[in-house]
Fold each of these.
Amino acid sequence: PMLNSSFIEETNEVILKGSHNIGIAMATAHGLVVPNIKKVQSLSILEITKELA
């Protein structure tokens, strides 16, 4: 599937974005927090977990 893309209906065009960012909802004692991890396509699973710590 095409990830992180946009579809322009008028021109029937698909625009692919250069990078992927993700947010993961986490419940904390202070409420809901959603950290945003940028350029996740270039990170390993271990690097992503370090970003969330």
Note: The CA atoms of residues 11 and 35 lie 35 Å apart.
Amino acid sequence: MNKRTFNHRVAIMAMSLMAATGFTACSDDDNNGGSEVEAQKVKEMSTLTEKYVNDVVYYTYDKLADASEKLYDEVEAMRNSLAAGTLTQQQIDQTCATFLEARAWWEKSEAWLYGPAENWGIDPHIDTWPLSRPGLAKFLSNNKDKDGIFRPGFDINEAIEDVSENNNEDSWLGFHGLEFVLFRDGAHRTVADFQGEESASEFAGSGVDGALELDFAWAVAGDLRDHTYRLEVNWNENAPQARKDRVQARGWSLMDEPGYYTGYALTHPASGMPYTSARGAISTILNSGCMNIAQEVADQKMGQVWRTATGQGTAEDSQDYIESPYSHKSFQDFYDNIISIKNALYGNIEQPNYDERSIMSYLHKYNPELASNLQQGLDASFDKLNVCMQGRAFVEVAYSGTAEELDNVAKAMEAINQLNEALNEADYWIQRN
């Protein structure tokens, strides 16, 4: 994410807020027929929203927090093993696998980046790219001595706070700081890598070695874990107590601003609440959630690189704007983003068929053509991204892509844009019928 992407998301959020709060009369539930049919629609919309919140959002954030917690423990174990001279490649491989698990759950949550992810800036805090290697080299070099964050015998909770608050470049935090430590050129790093000094050219003469990188990764993993706890806790008032305790220990609110649990607010629309109608809640799911990430994947995550690689870039585009370049998982990230949209529409987690209490089921009942358009958009997006995933990594395509490879990227972007159009049509129709 960069500043342009963040501002783009804010604009989409503002448009959705108008729909969610009943800004226009045609969005009010009681202005869509005033009949028994309308009452049934509102009941069904309320039921599917509850299913979405409980079985999709809550479930995903719980799994994300589980994986992030496990990642923190495994990075700590790697650090201790390196110090004891017992670090193994199997241990590194396991930590890399856990990182990818946590990463996948995060990407599969990006169809609902409204709420605490947006309001508290959690999304840019844990998922900003590209990582500044020169900046990270300077930061680590400045914090390795007796007065630095990673001084001998440092307290991990203090380090988590210091890294989170004193690091002025979010690109060093969260997933991409950890990715840099654990992966290079699409491969897991080795025991020898951690036993020596950092080999990236930007670190030459910095004195940064594998032990310092793992100190840093331990603190960053703790900060990532805490932010994933906050996501779960701010959405779900029944989140595990230990996670609530840790959120409060960081000095954070248990609730999303301005003082409500997002899951409760979405499933209890009423006057004075963030969402005032059942239709407004659906619009938030489709507009602030699904459309938001579809637009970002096509226009920003893929679009910036494609435009620069094909000579169509603007001053705001960058060829370096590549998500997950060290693990070579960019296309997987994009695929998982579309899975998040599918899960939101289906009311379940990666099932072949949608739940009877879902947006897809609702549309199939009341407007089968729109349901078909959405399904076609999902299928085409998955198909085109699968083609991309069979080839070279996105970071390689960015700098030496063939005409065929760039055309494959363009086709995936087109399919995702068509999915976004279908989402927009579905939202428009639901708000007016």
Note: The chain has 19 helices and two strands.
Amino acid sequence: MISPGQKAPDFSLPGVIDREPAIYDLHQFIDDVEAVVLAFAPSAHAPVCEDDLRALGESGWDDRGDLLVWAITGDSLFANASAARRLGIGFPVISDFHAGIADSYGVSLDDWHGHRDIPGRALLVVDSGWTVRHAWSPSDPFEVPRGSPFAAVAEALNECGVDVTAPEVEDRVDH
């Protein structure tokens, strides 16, 4: 997995926001913000992962001008649109269908419930200078950490000059 202090890879992937498809190029957006949160998930519909995405959506982080929030899943564009609508997510949900970008960040899974080459679950913070400031990825995407996995994300964002508080994750899905 990519480590704090390393340079984040650039990428260009299809995604959706408000059911509108677009191509999301990190290099076109990163200079306009203080930091970027990348929330990788095997599927936006998977237990625990959807809890994380819902909490991130409810955090209000995507309403800030100094912060970019993107979810990156192994789902298709259409499945991502459905999940974003159902979870009330107002930030882009991007499709890394064959885990090429997840692999470049070192967070891909070779096999997950019969799916091959899929993004794992991870939370990363990248600053405007392309430096990874925080990287977390459990070995099991269904792992439920003690406390919010966003606490360390919020700490890294605060160090980047983005004043946020960590959202609490409510486990609404049976695991």
Note: The mean pLDDT is 91.
